[in-house]
Amino acid sequence: MKNRKCLVINGPNLNRLGKREPGIYGAQTLEDLQADLVSFSRELLMDLSFEQSNNEGDIIDFIHGAEGEFGGIVLNAGAYTHYSYAIRDAISSVDVPVIEVHLSNVHAREEFRRESVIAPVTIGQISGFGFDSYRLALQVFHNQLKGDTL
């Protein structure tokens, strides 16, 4: 990670957190997630920006726009994770490390959710820990800034 600025991108239906399948995704909203991450990022001395879109092209534009501005991207691509080669290509085209995150354990759900076409072009995938999935991704970027990497 090159700098302390991190972009958090949330894809389709994540604007419905708190309403959509609360048994899987919980009762907290996207706004709750963002507030939680802002508080956590202060502890890490990191600056966060947030984007959310239900549209694939917007997500691609967010990824492209991160180059030269952000040191890392935390990406929950939602259902696009499983089939968007366009988002995969966008990640491959930028010099910004990306960590794929998911609130639920995608490997314990429907079979189609177990395949990620974007994972091979990210530096890692974290799933199944709710909001902590995002916190863990931010912690990884923080550790890289400190030089604590594998």
Describe the protein in words:
The longest helix has 16 residues, at 131-146. Helix 4 links the parallel strand 3 (72-76) and strand 4 (98-102). Helix 2 (30-43) runs parallel beside helix 5 (131-146) and helix 3 (56-66) runs parallel beside helix 4 (85-93). The model has no long low-confidence stretch (mean pLDDT 91). The protein is 36% helix and 17% strand. The protein has five helices and five strands; from the N terminus they run E-H-H-E-H-E-H-E-E-H. It is of the alpha/beta class and 150 residues long. It has a five-stranded parallel β-sheet with strand order 2-1-3-4-5, with helices on both faces.
Q: Care to give the gist of this entry?
A:
By secondary structure, this protein is α/β, with parallel strands linked by helices. The protein has helices spanning 22-25, 30-43, 56-66, 85-93, 131-146; strands spanning 5-10, 47-52, 72-76, 98-102, 124-127.
Keywords for this entry:
single chain, 150 residues, alpha/beta, Rossmann fold, 5-stranded parallel β-sheet, 5 helices, 17% strand
